[in-house]
Amino acid sequence: MRDTNIMKISVFSLLLCSAFGLIVSSSNLQADIFKTTDEQGNVSFSDESTERSEKIELGPINTQPFPKGSTRPKPKKQVAKPPKYEQVSIVSPQPETTIPPGITAITVAITTSPILHPQHVVQIMMNGAPKGTPRHSLSFEINDLYRGEHSIQANILDQQGKLITSSKPIKVYVIRPTVR
User: Fold this and answer.
1) Cα(98)–Cα(160) distance, rounded to whole angstroms?
2) CB atoms within 10 A of CB 173
3) Which of 109, 88, 63 is nearest to 156 (CA)?
4) Higher confidence at residue 160 or residue 57?
5) From CA 41, how far away is CA 49, in angstroms rounded?
6) 43 confidence band (pLDDT: 50, 70, 90)
7) Which of 5, 41, 135, 168 has the fewest CB atoms inside 10 Å of its own CB, making it the most exposed?
8) Helical segments of 1-72, H only
9) Phi (first) and psi of residue 22, to 5 degrees
10) Cα–chain-centroid distance for residue 16?
11) Do 133 and 121 contact (CB within 8 A), yes or no?
């Protein structure tokens, strides 16, 4: 029984190899082509021969190598270069402004030229210390002003928090009533 199975596998393998060999060798074969011209002068081509057809001999098959990929370098992404600020200034409040009693908050407005870059932020400084968090805005509110002279400055920072430029500091004076 075992010998019969081995024999069947051997015969199947032999047939499979023969079929594969025929397929590979037939891929190199070409069918003959015949040209026929009828009484009206119409030309037709066929793979079957007739008494009025003539065999056409074809030259070698025209092949072209596959084109290689482009050798041009890929363009580098152009990253917008941050501007160099020509001007950064505080426009409100005006320098030497006096803040009267009862006013507990002021709005600090700044202007830049050119406009503030999308990746830059502004940090308001009061008396040399940061006031609030840096943000991409040109208007800030300072609350809880206490009595006395204060220096206000606007710093422009990059994404890493590095100082790019600053406005000139301005002085404001806050008046509070004296309680006796």
Assistant:
1) 35
2) 13
3) 88
4) 160
5) 18
6) confident
7) 41
8) 2-26
9) -65, -40
10) 53
11) no
Complete domains list, the chain, with CATH: 2-56 (no CATH), 87-174 (2.60.40.10)
8-state DSSP, 25: H
User: Reduced to 3 DSSP states, what percent helix, strand and coil does the chain have, rounded to the nearest 5?
Assistant: 15, 35, 50
Identity at 171, one-letter amino acid code: K
**SS3 state at 169:** coil
Residue whose structure tokens are 């220096």:
151
- 27: pLDDT confidence band, cut at 50, 70 and 90? very low
The pLDDT, as a whole number, for residue 128 is 94
**Reduced to 3 states, what is the DSSP secondary structure of residue 129?**
strand
Other Cβ atoms closer than 10 A to 172: 22
Report pLDDT digits (tens) over 53-94. 888 887 787 888 877 776 677 777 776 677 799 999 999 999
Token duo for residue 33: 């082509």
